[in-house]
Amino acid sequence: MFDGLKDKLSSFREDVVEDTSTGQSDATASDDAAGEVEKKAEEADAEATPETGESEQTGAPAAEESAAAEPDGKPAADDSSGPGRLKRAAAFATGKVIIEEEDLEEPLQDLELALLSSDVEMSVADRILETVREKMLGETRAQVQTTDQLVTEALHDALLDVISVGQFDLEQRIAEADKPVTVVFTGVNGVGKTTSIAKLSEWLGERGYSSVLANGDTYRAGANEQIREHAEALDRKLIAHEQGGDPAAVIYDGVEYAEANDVDVVLGDTAGRLHTSNDLMAQLEKIDRVVDPDLTLFVDEAVAGQDAVKRAQEFDDAAAIDGSVLTKADADSSGGAAISIAYVTGKPILFLGVGQGYDDLRRFDPEELVDELLGET
Asked: Where is this region: Disordered (predicted)?
């Protein structure tokens, strides 16, 4: 999962380590060169100064020919040793490494291209680059913390910053909420909403919570049959009306059933729609008025990349989602949607669909995902 993005992040780390090591070697070489110039100047000065006690000024021309002197009397370093290189060498001599702008310039450009080519949204990529730069530039660290560790920490913090926006524990929220908890699923056609509902019902059951399915997709032919198959396979109660019925009424009936039968969670399906479909968006507004769901979850495919990010933002603007579920995450090499959606919408990703089975629903853990992307698990 997200293997392409993993490889690109790994390449960035390797580039920074290589560029920093090269810069450190150059700085050390410059410092050595400066020391050699100073040594030769001292030798020339000693040879030019007579042992008879004459003024040391007599030997000045010879010293000047050996090395150019600074105002304080110290020989100047050669042109290859500027303040930055000497600072770097001084840090190295005391057992530390230092990161400069020149070390990051090209790797950061490559990282930006890598993120964008992985379908990470532009503002999200900018935020990641800004955080990495802030955490690395001018940092001096003990050598026991290697450059690779330093860049890994910077990437870890930058990625976690954008991925974990708005994150909350759904299981804890359900445990603390008045029952039944009503969850409505929305999104475009064909992205796996109904299957995700079935998977979440299984996930809840494994944690001791009962659930009822309510088919608010009264628009699509065959919708009742599809969700009924899942309900029967999972041994769950299904609330459904005839095609063309009122979606709000179906989900409301599901809530009433749950209240009467001590069911913990109502999982309401809705018709796939575009945010520009006025009639179907009006249905969501009515569901919100009639049922007042505790959570509205947006479902899309991870493999849709930036299209999924854009749709999530549009649905949040139109229907105020509370979180997202990304399906087909196991088939996604890029990872752009998983990286971007929470930051763009301000609402968390709660689950990743990672297979076809009912138990192939993975709770979205930002820390765990970042560690996985950086090869730390």
From this structure: 1-86
